Amino acid sequence: MPLPIVAIIGRPNVGKSTLVNRLAGVQEAIVYDTPGVTRDRTYKPAFWADRDFLVVDTGGLIFDDDTEFLPYIREQAMLALSEASAAIMVVDGQEGPTASDLEIAQWLRQQHSVPVFLAVNKCESPDQGLIQAAQFWELGLGEPYAVSGIHGNGTGELLDELVSHLPPPEAIEEPEEIRVAIVGRPNVGKSSLLNAFVGENRAIVSPVSGTTRDAIDMLVERDDKRYRLIDTAGIRKKKNVDYGPEFFGINRAFKAIRRADVVLLVIDAIDGVTEQDQKLAGRIEEDGRACVVVVNKWDAVDKDSHTIYEYDRTIGSKLYFMEWAKRIYTSAMTGQRVPNILDLVDQAVAEHRRRVSTSVVNEVLEEAVGWHTPPTTRQGRQGRIYYGTQVTARPPTFALFVNDPKLFGESYRRYIEKQFRQNLGFEGSPIRLLWRGKKMRDLERQSANRATKV
Fold this sequence. Notes:
- Residues 4-170, 178-353 form the EngA-type G domain.
- GTP 2 binds at residues 184-191, 231-235, 296-299.
- GTP 1 binds at residues 10-17, 57-61, 121-124.
- This is GTPase Der.
- Associates with the 50S ribosomal subunit.
- The strands form three sheets. A six-stranded mixed β-sheet has the order 2-3-1-4-5-6, sandwiched between helices. A six-stranded mixed β-sheet has the order 8-9-7-10-11-12, with helices on both faces. A three-stranded mixed β-sheet has the order 13-14-15.
- The chain folds into three domains: 5-163, Rossmann fold; 177-353, P-loop containing nucleotide triphosphate hydrolases (Rossmann fold, 3-Layer(aba) Sandwich); 358-453, K homology (KH) domain (GMP Synthetase, Chain A, domain 3), CATH 3.30.300.
- The chain is α/β, with parallel strands linked by helices.
- Strand 5, helix 4 and strand 6 form a beta-alpha-beta unit.
- Helix 11 (358-371) crosses helix 12 (410-424).
- The radius of gyration is 27 Å and the shape is elongated.
- The protein has helices spanning 16-24, 70-82, 99-111, 126-134, 155-163, 190-198, 245-259, 275-286, 307-318, 338-353, 358-371, 410-424, 438-453; strands spanning 5-9, 42-48, 51-57, 86-92, 116-121, 144-146, 177-184, 216-222, 225-231, 262-268, 290-296, 326-329, 385-392, 397-402, 432-436.
- Helix content is 36%, strand content 21%.
């Protein structure tokens, strides 16, 4: 049974995202004093009394204007309301009732689908708040609650009334979620890919770059597995980004990478791998995330029987440092191979979380050293690998205990990593090799002995 949803509705710049942050107890929704910052509907978990629920933030509603993204924003707000158990209409207490507020209130009254609560935001003064809220009785939505999204004033009374209209809590055993971040440059088809997964217009899709401003989460279930798909803002070069909504959106995208189990790096098949794609791939590898490279818009490429092999060689040469990531050629527009992406996600997650016994690790090391011994310095010193063990997963990380890490150059370290790849796999996941010297090994043994005595 999914959590009940509470839709946050209102005109632009009344503080909807600020109130969402307050109700969810986080500072994630982008807040900026410009209309249209929130465009898609974004979900945040919230809790009050004994009820868990989701708060869905929506874009500012304007009914008499069809320019830019406004029709899409209205569509997203209507979709949010259609799946909600309750709605909160947010108005600006400092500005008072406007014609747009009256129009939205009338529209909400016509829906007859869910209970609607009126939150009069920006009532920072408790004394003045009641006077400010009283002006909004004329909207015909019942009692107006004077609240402050910034300071939290009055939100408790609003939530007390809200949760009484939500379905009662039930003991639910939730399956583990696999977090999948969808990242890439603007206009490579990230939102279209999300919509193809979900089967509805979950995110606004537009040929105008920068349509997605915030990171958007969506749950998809398949074969008793749950995937949290995170659509993110298109990431441009830093020098081209001004401080403002795009700046915040890109920061959210980087956070989405860090909290993901797997990252889908979406590349435009027409443009190929750009310098910005390479930088994004480098960031994914540095953060230790599993990755699947999704080459989108494959339907738009003129191809013959050799095209995919040529593309694969070109992409492999430009993403040579991420040769461990599997690649798939898709079309979000036609749905070509989109379902197969989750199969690769499952494989990447399994490898990212896999552990290998110490005995197997040392068998690989023994064979690798047998084929290619560590180099010897001019002074006659040669590197020695005593043993290795896996110390953690996500990503798989191995500690190699040696006589002196300085005796192992970069080429030999790459050789050992290549042997790990060939013998242990870990396809779809980065791996880490930690080279630890004899002194470090002795210190760790001493620490272990002290812990045993205690």
